[in-house]
Design brief:
The protein has one helix and eleven strands; from the N terminus they run H-E-E-E-E-E-E-E-E-E-E-E. It starts with a helix and ends with a strand. The chain is mainly beta and about 150 residues long. A hairpin with a 2-residue loop joins strand 5 and strand 6. Strands 1, 2, 3, 4, 5, 6, 7, 8, 9, 10 and 11 form an eleven-stranded mixed sheet that branches. The protein has a single domain, classed as Immunoglobulin-like, CATH 2.60.40. The radius of gyration is 18 Å and the shape is globular. Pfam families: PCuAC (PF04314). This is Copper chaperone PCu(A)C.
């Protein structure tokens, strides 16, 4: 009897873990108005947070339509002290998040997905009340600064 009960409990826990993992992925389906800015096509959204919270995540897509590779040297967001590029992975059943140092390569013709469970932006140190959009600045290796407005959802 206890063996059957243990099997049932383990099955339920496994199904809950699978459900949690998949409910935390693939947010770009609900995104995004993409805009081309100087040969880079991108669209972003920022996760809506409680007004007392100071950290949130940013998701989206960025595609290098240029003929040459480039790099992102810095990312800034209005209303936040700093923006970091992070990656999440599942290792031995444990979710791990790591900061990725700049520069971030943007290969020619390639799309980079920023989503839960993978690459994403961390907006840290909220300085003011955030409205319906957050302006995000990408500084490229050639010194060019590209600007997108990310919806807060």
């Amino acid at each position: 009897m206890f063996r059957n009960l243990n099997t049932i409990i383990l099955t339920i826990l496994f199904l809950l873990q699978v459900n949690l993992y998949f409910s935390c992925t693939n947010v770009t389906e609900e995104l995004l108005v993409q805009k081309e800015e100087s040969g880079i096509l991108a669209g972003f959204r920022v996760r809506k947070i409680h007004e007392s919270a100071t950290v949130t995540a940013g998701y989206g897509k960025i595609t290098n339509l240029r003929d040459a590779d480039t790099e992102v040297r810095e990312i800034r967001a209005e209303g936040y002290e700093t923006v970091e590029w992070h990656t999440s992975s599942l290792e031995d059943g444990i979710a791990k998040m790591r900061k990725v140092d700049f520069p971030i390569p943007l290969p020619s013709g390639k799309e980079i997905l920023l989503d839960k469970g993978g690459n994403h932006l961390m907006l840290i140190g909220k300085k003011k009340k955030i409205s319906e959009t957050v302006r995000i600045y990408f500084v490229l290796s050639n010194g060019e600064t590209l600007v997108w407005d990310a919806a807060v959802k």
